[in-house]
Amino acid sequence: MSSNVTNVVSVDEKNRWLGKLAYGALVSLALAQYDGKTARNPHSENLFLLRWLQTALKQKRFHRCVVHDFEWLIHLGQQRLMTSKLKFRLEYLWRSCCCDIASQSDLFRLTYATELLKDLGWDSVVLSDERWQKLIKKKPIVTAIPTFYVTQSALTVGFSDEGKQINSVDFWVQGDKAQFSEVIKQHYLQGEFDDALPRYRLLPL
Q1: How far is 48 from 31, CA to CA, in rounded Å?
Q2: If you average pLDDT over residues 56-77, what whole number do you get?
Q3: Predicted confidence band at 172 (pLDDT cuts at 50, 70, 90)?
Q4: Measured between alpha carbons, how far is residue 23 from residues 100, 128, 173 in Å?
Q5: Angle at 63 between CA 22 and CA 188, to 5 degrees
Q6: What radius of gyration, in Å, describes the C-alpha atoms of the chain?
Q7: HEC profile for 18-46?
Q8: Strand order in the sheet with 123-127
């Protein structure tokens, strides 16, 4: 870590360091897998990346402006070693910092919007068409865990093979509608809620 640092770091500068962090972690993982030092499965990848992050933070390899990001990823890895998806999160971090997130495919952005909602305490459920019909016929209830539902068929016909949204996709949202809408909007997607029902329709751009 450089000693010539200022108290204020611009957003662009922080994004540059976040991109470096993610790139360094992903390249190290790829090299370790190529050399046979770690397996190509989620558990091994999470464990390798957790140790890499801990070492990089301890050795102060990166600017102090990303310390909190290091700590968040490490905490996530320690608390949810089997399900933290550190590789997935670092790939998203690299793309969002080094690439224009708005230029990514619609399905890519929806996938990461879903992950962010999960980080915020939401649950997601993919239903069959039959179970969907039963769900929407019920009176909306308040659930202990905010949850959004979608059918596999809606996702299949909603996106092309290239990830472009070609049809509307309906979600049944039992939770904070404003928060759900905001996360979707943050990922350059658009939609609207039904006035009378907790149904959110994701619309093609």
Answers
A1: 11
A2: 91
A3: very high
A4: 16, 38, 35
A5: 45
A6: 19
A7: HHHHHHHHHHHHHHHHHCCCCCCCHHHHH
A8: 123-127, 147-151, 169-174, 199-203, 190-193
Asked whether residue 5 carries a pLDDT value surpassing 50, the answer given is no
Q: Of 121, 127, 165, 128, whose CA–CA distance to 147 is shortest?
A: 121
Separation between Cα atoms, residue 178 and residue 4, nearest integer Å: 42
CA distance 101 to 111: 12
Distance CA(117)–CA(87), nearest Å, equals: 18
CB 202 within 8 A of CB 184: yes
Residue 14 tokens, joined: 């922080």
Rounded to whole angstroms, how far apart are CA atoms 163 and 5? 41
Q: Which residue's structure tokens are 């751009």?
A: 205
